[in-house]
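Why this split exists: single-chain examples teach little about how molecules sit against one another. For that reason, every record in the complexes split bundles all components of an assembly together and asks for one structure covering all of them. Below is a record exactly as it appears in the raw files.
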Amino acid sequence: MTAMLGTSSLLSIEALTGGVFLLTALGTVAARQLLACFRLFVLQSFLLSVSAALLGVALHSPHLLAVAAITLATKTMLIPWLLRRTVHDEVYRIREIDQVLNIPSSLLLALALTGAAYVFTDSLGAVGVPAYSFVNLPIGIATLLLGAFTLTVRREAVAQLLALLVAENGVFFAGITIVPDLPAIAELAAAVDIPVYTLVIGLLTRRIHSEIGTTMVGRLVALKEE
Amino acid sequence: MLPHIGYNLLQVAVVIGFAPLLEGILSRLKEIVQSKCGPSVFQPYRDLAKLLCKDEIVSRESSWLFRAAPYVAFTAPIFVTLLIPVLTGYPLFFAFMGDMLGAGFILALGGFFVALAAVDTANPYGPMGASRTRMVGFLTEPVFLIVFMTISLVAGSTIPYVVQKEWVISPAAFFAPWHVLLLLAFLLLILAEDGRLPVDSVSGHFELAMIEKSKSLEYSGRGAALMKWAGAMKLFVLMVVFLNVLVTPWGLAVSTAPVEVLLAVPYVLFKMLLFLLVLVAIESSLAKLRLFRISEFTGAAFVIAVVAMVSRLFAA
Amino acid sequence: MVLAAVLLVPVVASLLTLAMGTQHRRGLLTVLAMASVLALSLAAARSTLAKDQISTAGGWLACDGLGALILVLVAFVSFTAALFSAGYLAQRHPHEESGWHSAYYPLFNLFVASMLAVPLMANVALLWVALELTTLLSAFLVGFEATPEALEAAWKYALLTTLGAIIALLGVLILYWGTRVAGKEVFTWNELITDAPAMPPALIWPAFLLILIGFGTKVGLVPMHTWLPDAHSQAPAPICALLSGVETSTALYVILRLYAVLSRVPGSEAEPWFLVFGVLSVGVATILLVQVRDYKRMFAFSTVEHMGIILLAVGLGSADARFAAAYQITAHALAKSFCFFASGIVVLVLGEQRIAAVHGLARRAPIAAVPLIAGALAITGMPPSAIFASELLILKAGLARGEYLVTGFLALFIVVGFAAIMRHATRMSFGAGPLGRWPGVVPGTCLAALAITAAPLVILGLSMPTALVGLLQLAGTAMGR
């Protein structure tokens, strides 16, 4: 494949993936409906795996190919399956997401966060970052920030979980370019960890739903300082 | 020199000639999606012919503005056509008369006159549509500026021919993340600017909900034909900028050989057909936004455009 | 070998408890398992003391002074918590043996295993995995009571600490990038410390900040502490003891390790970060202590305060201060688990967590009031509690470093914290109660857990065994330059 396309064109296509990846991250901030949010997450995970695969071929790194395969298996298949099993109704029935902040304001904040990610990456310029890192690193960090931000403003359990997974995608998107040869054991461990936390939080959601009758965790305000 | 002027005129002819066809194809495609058996793709031509033959009725209360507006609206896209690469990849005679911003101003001038004319009629729906169009305009124009500035950061110019060359020559710039973001921002702008779903429903017949169409309700005969034609040409021109400059800058004539220039016509039309498929998909799957959510829509375009600019600025 | 055994025992115990039929047997087995874990970790600490550092399993598991200290503390509190659980569960949930409740001991064992793994993992990436597992495995334990409040607490806990872990993951990856830039392959703490001068500071600093914020969430540093009082007040008492006593310290462990790396970077200025976060945590926690209305929540805020004190002590930057910090970690683990055991007994007596609902506890149930007052005194640093000695050492180190402002604030906040906690505790204990004497009996294992925790707490406040001094010194060295 490298011979066919050449490293530089592989990296160009990878950059294109980066652009779409950032779009999906912005999309999750702007999405009003949970199902749309969920689909954007799956698309984003797919893009992450495509990006890892392209980089893996371009840089001759079997580790990245493994990351691509693991991501594809866990995030685009296993996690959607787990969510469907544990919180099917929450994903497919609740239509609109309840949010503390309205969408235009959150988009403006998202803009500021993305800018911050770029400024931050710019400060790493002295390290001798390869060009492809300059594509992935800010986009990944921006996605991490956007995910964390979305998590804090959403009031719905599954929406918060999705935001968490988006943040996590961002870390991996940045990570694949800066550590192309992280020991395989860590990848595997992370691959186990992520479905586990999806499962744990999914089950917790279900438990909350069955005990309290809603997954609007924003309404759970018994515990606070007076 | 002379062939350049000739090709410039040919471009104008292509825009004037094929704009109604594209509109016909668009509505035909939508009907196919909706499982209707609608009229043929040439229906807009028949409509135009019919309207041109009819008498024109003009309200006694209206002024010269009302009569002048269709002509201004009709000529604005023609002037824009002189500035943009419709068929050739090399600059033609008038290419350096204005850049993309200039093209935007010319289109805005047409829109301005139409809005004035709509107010001039004293029909209650006209001013409503005009004010709504202005609202959408106010929301989209800053985004247009940001998009053009980001483009000029990449290409060092906002002359559409130069930009088009830049994307062709440098695949790295073409595949860069900000390019995708710009494309999406521009697409959203086209939807808003041309009154497409989810901003405005082209096929709606409910005057209170109209944005774009209510401005031409008072026109009849030749005026109505020109307004309709102008609308089709505006979409055509926007699509040319979007496709030939930003998305698929390939396939334009590179030499002055007439055959090559003529061959570019079907090629460009084919690209537009593909784009129409996307447009149909968008229009068939989205519902119209409430008026006050339009600001969210353009806000999204704004955010995407600024993100594109930020990522371009920091990609040293 | 012993290090692998430490991890293996609770995992096996978890599988065995899964197979058992009654809560009583599960509890018994867990207590036995925890006792052997404690013995094994003491053995590990002993050989660490002799050799400075031990490693096994091809270098994947390693243990130095700081690791051994955390290991022993986790093992000790796990043992007492297992002991406490046996009586506590039998009394509070007497007839609930199946379903949700049967998962308690298997999860307890796995949770302990994950906490034991944190100080033993040599590879930083695996350490991240272990720390993330501590959250996941304890989330259900936090929500064990299955009341809306408990589930809310579990939800916040799982979500926010996982978000923290994800932020920290980016930090870990950037740290690994740094080692790669420095030309190394192995990603262990030892390598990091040796390579620190060769790593670009432009990478170490973002990594440090991301890890400080990420794992700081799990430690409960202000302003990332919002989940902590909820989780630490809603979980069953023995789980609270584990969470507050040692789980926070295992997360803090990573930040302390990072300090050792940072202090080797030329021209590094890590101390201000530690001081600022430390003072902020101590200050905010103290202010919140004054207004608290739930006695378990009160001890939870006290945990935030103590984490701040430890961070601040490390930030003072002297060897004495680091020794005192290690001492404070030890004292806090003992005192805080004691406090939560005591409040567990109060819950058994009253079934109520609001301070305002409790009056005249000393008359109604002296068996609950005495530990409560003793715990409040111990955690606020009344001699002969070990907390007194450790806080005194920290204040001394602060004055010796000339950090008068920070030390002054620390002293002030300690005094205010003391006043606040004692006010709440005395209000609950003394005065006329509405009811007569409590007819029930506190389970023997609960009292045993209290006694076992109290003994070292007092002994360490009076005199320190040489072995412990050696371990604390080793731990201090592992943190510092």
